[in-house]
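User: Can you predict the 3D structure for this chain?
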Amino acid sequence: MRTQPQIDAIQRAIDRHSYGVYELGKHDCAILAADCMMALGCPDPMAEVRGYYHSARQLSRLLTSLGYRGKLGFVEAWCERNEYPRIPSWATQVGDLGLTRDMGFCVRTSRTFISIASSGLLVSVEPVHSWAIQWTQ
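Assistant: Here is the predicted structure, written as structure tokens:
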């Protein structure tokens, strides 16, 4: 169970993304998720690719060039390196990581998983894959 300071850290990371213009590589669902993971004290999951893509095609090519099998392979590798287990979405808590059916990154809040839509707005989504992220601070 997360403590209130942990929940507050996640919320601050989400709040920083509440009013941005959608821009791949700067203000997108992957950057939101990465910033939330870092708020929990995790290493930056996007460190290898942050700032190096500006389109979905560029991100796909970049992940392939780094040896990942798409976004799912990328997230699986990061979670495995950090020993974050895959769990069913019903077992998640605030700050856990997910991927949607269309491979959008999402983060668990107190009520639902959220992501950033191409409109730039935060939206509620349903993950098809999820991982338990441990608090490390």
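The longest strand covers residues 127-131. The longest helix spans residues 4-15.
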